[in-house]
Amino acid sequence: MRKTRNNIFEGIDWILILLFVALVFFGWINIYAASSTEETRAVFDYSARYGKQLIFIALAIPIIVLILFFDSKFYENFASIFYVISLLVLAGVLVFGKKINGATSWYSFGGIGLQPSEFAKAFTALALAKLMSDRKYNLKLIKNQLKAFIIILIPAFLIALQPDMGSVLIYLAFFFVMNREGLTVSYFVLGAIALTLFLATIYAGVTWVLSICLLLITSYVIYGAYKNKRFLRFNIAAIISTYVVSTAFIIGIGYAYNNILEQHQRDRFDILLGKIEDKKGVGYNIYQSELTISSGGLTGKGFLEGDRTQGDFVPEQDTDYIFSTVSEEWGFVGSAGVIILFMVLLYRIIYLSELQRNKFGRIYGYGVASIIFFHVLINIGMVIGILPTIGIPLPFFSYGGSSLWGFTVLLFIFIRLDAHKKYEW
What we know:
By secondary structure, the protein is mainly α. It has helices spanning 14-35, 49-69, 72-77, 79-96, 117-132, 142-160, 165-170, 174-180, 186-204, 206-227, 231-259, 263-272, 284-294, 307-310, 322-354, 359-383, 401-419, and strands at 98-100, 103-109, 112-114.
């Protein structure tokens, strides 16, 4: 029987809505704890960051209503247009944007900043879903894989020019989406090898890593020739390519690390790898964050009772390092609770993605889950000191309108797509 949508809320998944509200509310509670002082405790003090975040939350409501207003097919039909517009906006910020903390990533409108890269992730997910849901699209074909890679790489490249390398890393999340749709695991193996070579080159230097790598390749070639006399005859092109690519990659890493990355970025990797110890300079944030987290203990010191949070020991504690506030005031129990909330959110998105009646909704749903997962993984890993500081916000928690609105758009487009299966057009 044909159904029609009587209101914009028909068919939406209220579990996702409740999870969204819980994360935003608890996020604001911790922003309040991190940015308020004994002199400024008024909840509606809009000059304080926690007050501004209330405004951002309030403005997210009309964004949600607008997203739910349009039918699901609207996002599928106009996915490519949204993507192109996002690329133009990303390119425009390089010319008209405001430089903050060394990166030209923001538009400034009368004192209000807007970071387009936060919205580009959602539109890239839409474009990728549009491409891969085409009936004629076969991901096993190299030419089709290249099309998907191009959709991912163009916004990543524009963001790298700002430069905002933390946001660039998030685009690796789309490989999980492609893997769900049939991309072979070999790409992940190559990625793991590339990451290993990257870290090894930074730690040991180009000469050592290149020598060991070439020795391993040569050993494999000798072993293959020993086992099969025709090994070289049929694999000579692949062998030469492996030598050339490996050499170029390792030398390229060394060059990029020493000549492209800023000194403070190199220092962060050196601290992570244990090459240097700098608790007062570049490593100050991570060091203070680790102390703040450990001071929370099992159950925490209590709301507004975290002396390190209230003492403002951790810079940017209401943005990138918001999780340290959670850990100090709510302890291991509260930290685990936040992680569980995110896990439930991710599970719900993936579960609903598998229930979608068309590939577009499923692929976009996996894109949403992968992006949120990468943000949570990198942000918490950064705060606890197992990843370098790269400026990745914690979804729905970190202070900032662009971050909150970007994730709101990302999630609620999926909620609208999911509601589509409850009725027919």
